[in-house]
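If you are new to this repository, start here. Below is one unmodified record pulled from the training split, so you can see the exact layout before writing a loader.
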Amino acid sequence: MLTSVAILIFSQPVVPDSVGKGFSCNQRSTKNVIRQLNNHVRQTASATGLPVFYSEQLITHTGSFGQQLTAAMNAVFQQGVDHLITIGNDCLELSVSHLKQAVSQLQKHPLVLGPDRRGGLYLIGLSRQIFQDAQWLEIPWQTNRVCGMVNRIFSSFSISWLPALADINGIADLYKYQSTDVRALCLVTYLLTLLSGQSGLLITRPIYRRSWTGLRIRSLRAPPATPSSPFHFHYQSTAQ
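And here is the target side for that same chain:
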């Protein structure tokens, strides 16, 4: 068994994150979306029962993305953690199962990677023994070269790969989102409802895979969009 493992949720503070994401020209709506994304990943991480650290509580989020991420990872390792799983707030399909799989794989491999479908990473699991600031600082973060570069830098180590999942960077990603994960689909619909400013609206959009075309999301009445409030969904399947 691992001596100690923790989860780091690395995400920008709501205000700068809302500026950097292309969800809406309405900053209030975008902030609400960011808060719900944060809620989603925090609930998922907490459900594992593992210690969870938040980058906003560890660092000041100044400097480049790579500098901030490296500083946050370093701060967690300084707490005495031997194995760290770092995730963001933009992968809706990330589940407790994926996180537990990462924990399991860290027992056999010093590095576990969850690739997104654009060349980035939605999850990084690594042992403190292979963590060096310089290596993570040279990675071209927020580009489609992240996954390939990490793979090359750590090619001498045994790497375990998780399934590729989609990430969300803006409203266009929400409209074209496809998944067989009902929870992710519900969240996508709710986020679009927040952006439309019409909570309670019945939305039927052709974003689902064929096997889910009979799913309609109903009664999407928004709860208060605060970092501590969970989202709630009621859905009705019309598939025969």
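Two things worth knowing about this chain: DSSP finds nine helices and eight strands in the chain. The beta strands are 5-9, 52-54, 83-87, 111-115, 121-127, 159-161, 215-218, 234-237.
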